[in-house]
Amino acid sequence: MQSETETKESISYEDFKTQVLKDYKVAVTSRECSLLGRREVLTGKAKFGIFGDGKELPQIAMAKSFKNGDFRSGYYRDQTFMMAIGHLSIENFFAGLYADTDIENEPMSAGRQMGGHFISHNNNDDGSWKNLMEQKNSSADISPTAGQMPRLLGLAQASKIYRNVDGLDAEMFSNNGNEVAWGTIGNASTSEGHFWETVNAAGVLQVPMVLSVWDDEYGISVHAKHQTTKESISEVLKGFQRDQDKNNGYEIIVVNGWDYVELVEAYDKAQKIAREEHCPVLIHVVELTQPQGHSTSGSHERYKSDKRLAWEKEFDCNAKFRTWIIENGFSTPEEIDKLDKDIKREVREGKKRAWNAYLNPNKEKQQELLQILSNIAKKSDAEEHLKPLIKKLKSTKEPLKKDVLSLARKTLRYIINFNGEDKTELINWIKDFNDQSFDEYSSHLYSTNKAIDNEVLPVYADEPKMVDARIVIRDNFDKIFETRPETMIFGEDAGEIGDVNQGLEGLQKKYGSYRVADTGIREATILGQGIGLSLRGLRPIAEIQYLDYVMYALQTISDDLATLHYRTKGKQKNPLIVRTRGHRLEGIWHSGSQLGGILNLIRGVYVLVPRNMTKAAGFYNNLLDLDNPALIVECLNGYRLKERLPENLGEFKTPIGKVETLREGKDITLVSYGSTLRIIEQTADELAEIGIDVEIIDVQSLLPFDTSHDIVESVKKTNRLLVIDEDVPGGASSYILQKVLEDQNAWRYLDSKPQTLTAKEHRPAYGSDGDYFSKPSHEDVYEKIYAIMHESNPEKFPKLM
């Protein structure tokens, strides 16, 4: 049996015995936390529990081979592993169960995720990187089954990049690519598409990845016979097994989850293959159990037979480990019994400390409020209304924050006519509590430790060269890759042919296939590559060929990329740039403008919609100096239009969150973005001929949106507003209206009803005619603006039709 570089033969018997008993203590501690955690849920102290019982032994074996610099992308049952690497204490475990918002008590998410979702702190408080080579790393878990798989691919690929790309500043991130990415997943979740996409891509890329499948034969109540062909994922994947010539493929290992010796040997073998050969390894851990069932929401006795339940009791990995320890003379039954008893006591005491740490700040707030309300009751005429509230507050033995704040806010209803220092004190107390609550529950959605609205204008020669717009984006990427070795781009057709619009033409030949790379048709794991690479200090640009195809990756963007900074309260960041192209071509799946849905699903990611390639290039340059992830939608029909070629490539920056006024006017404010702006600008000239003077504003950035509130300043002047958008009715146009009317209070300055002009409800029909009849056309824009002006001045602008 091996543990890292040590073997049973190379250490003393006493040292080996100490290791074994230490492992046993971790296993039993984890189990006791699971058992007591379930009781805490059933008594109401916690809302929900999903635990790692039955998986303790393989997770301990995995921890033995997990080294500093390695990364985990795991399953929400990996509590034993986190305990084994020293990242999860008993108190931390229960703080997660109680949703303690103090990140010192609950370092996994500060109460933002349910228990069982684990992280390591990879960023300092100022957002800068920690030295990831000095710690064991865990990327932040998510609940969607198999959702951890795409990111696992990128975490593993980063080692490949660090090993093969020169010029990288790798001191804090890699030791020549020797790090392994460790993935874990339940057997039933291997049915998900994300699992299959990742497994295939990892085999193609040959990355150092060890993927463990915890197999207890069930997915909640559904047996493996309904989940997996042949009821065995390792049987199904035999075609992935590499051959004797070690052609691309996997090393596949099957091991019983209750066999300590075999587990440790299996994991040591796996990590050596992955670390040294950069070959992915699958470890199928079979014959595992789940003693408490799937979660606290149900009982496994309902769907498991008596025979199965009896087998699970006999083959429980902790019970088997105990028997092995005694049979091999490492301890006696009496000593083990005493150890078990001591562990139970430690877990109970740790639980109590965690509960008190969670509850005491709430009690302090409760006492503060009681004092304030008592003072108000004595001095106001609302004493009879306040007495029941004060009584209710006093009688609450274990108050939640919402209990205290809710009651304080209700109090204001009864003291509207009361004035005095005590009322002011109450109002200030509520404001302070709300500010504290924002930090605890709503902070860190975006990584904003740097200014995002910096603008550096393009510099042009006296007689600038006019080129196809694709040349602007291509040459800007060239400058980026030349000056920033940590950058790379990958996607379908991005490498050899330089993307479908040749915005990367010739760059693979110049910078190599590790930095400008083709991928398979697999959008979810293209995003996953980007997430994992960015978690390891690189600056990837993940290309999705068309905006329509972002739908394949939307779950990964929404659940993982967009939430990471928030769900770790700033302790992890993934500054991935997602490059795509959309708007106005032809056909249902090549004319994407579904931004209304995207905007509302990926809050946390910047959404940028440049109208031309110079603006797009400026966004890339800006983002590479920032830490927040972003989606850039280039105009699909703009690559062959002519633009001036800037001289300061790689340096000019388009400000994020800032609009640009393209044309000043006094009659109506037109707000739009992307390709539609060209139609609007053409129409503006024709409207000017009949005396309609329009002001045109390019949004540029949808998330964040007009942070300087420039649009309302335009509406103050024109008193009319039209939002023109090629998304469906109620899509991005509704979002823009809400921002302008509510956030900027533009309604105060309107003389006419604010309106939108959008595409039809359906996807664009094929062909140029289809685009004309599906999305706002030149005539649509003209007639809509004319109708608004007719309403305000019918004599000057008689009815058109």
From TrEMBL:
Parts of the chain that traverse the membrane: none
SMART domains named among the record's database cross-references: Transket_pyr (SM00861)
Domain of life of the source: Bacteria
Domain called Transketolase-like pyrimidine-binding: residue spans: 467-641
Single GO MF descriptor: branched-chain 2-oxo acid dehydrogenase activity
Needed cofactors: thiamine diphosphate
Keyword Disulfide bond included in the entry's annotation: no
UniProt cross-references to InterPro entries, sorted A to Z: DH_E1, THDP-binding, Transketo_C/PFOR_II, Transketolase-like_Pyr-bd, Transketolase_C
Pfam families tied to this protein: E1_dh, Transket_pyr, Transketolase_C
The protein's enzyme class: oxidoreductase
EC number: 1.2.4.4
GO biological process: branched-chain amino acid catabolic process; response to nutrient
Alphabetically ordered keywords of this record: Oxidoreductase, Thiamine pyrophosphate
Function: E1 component of the 2-oxoglutarate dehydrogenase (OGDH) complex which catalyzes the decarboxylation of 2-oxoglutarate, the first step in the conversion of 2-oxoglutarate to succinyl-CoA and CO(2).
Protein name: 3-methyl-2-oxobutanoate dehydrogenase (2-methylpropanoyl-transferring)
Organism this protein belongs to: Zunongwangia atlantica 22II14-10F7
Lineage: Bacteria, Pseudomonadati, Bacteroidota, Flavobacteriia, Flavobacteriales
